[in-house]
Design a protein that fits this description.
InterPro entries: DUF6176. The chain has four helices and four strands, in the order βααββαβα. The protein has 120 residues and is of the alpha+beta class. The protein has one domain: 2-Layer Sandwich (Alpha-Beta Plaits), CATH 3.30.70.100. α1 runs antiparallel to α3. The chain is globular.
């Protein structure tokens, strides 16, 4: 099981477009959720923060070890999602993968996650 938290910096002047992006994902949540099964992604959360003069998006995820981040499922939503990513995320800033120190998942939940990974 992979548990990750990655920080991406939003391009200056793209904060309103980032608002639209997050609104798009929330409005199309059912379609977005369909992509998770193909990726063996159990949790994907996007959080937002400001530090200094920049905004940052943080991706938190729990995924099976053999999960595929390039799922063929629901390409339409993924295509739009990646378009927003390319327009909003500052590629000059190297994404920061925060180091996982402790993962606390109750055994009953972990077993369900592992069973779900085998189903997909």
């Amino acid at each position: 099981m992979q548990v990750e938290l990655t920080r991406f910096r939003v391009k200056k002047g793209k904060e309103e477009l980032t608002d639209q992006w997050m609104e798009f994902l929330n409005k199309h949540m059912n379609d977005a959720l369909l992509t998770l099964d193909g990726e063996k992604m159990f949790v994907e959360t996007i959080m937002r923060d400001s530090m200094g003069n920049y905004e940052y998006l943080y991706w938190y995820s729990i995924q099976a070890d053999d999960g595929d981040s390039n799922s063929e499922t629901e390409k339409c939503i993924d295509t739009k999602h990646l378009e927003y990513f390319d327009k909003c995320i500052d590629r000059t800033y190297r994404p920061k993968n925060l180091k996982t120190e402790v993962v606390m998942i109750p055994q009953r939940i972990k077993k369900q996650i592992e069973a779900a990974a085998e189903e997909v």
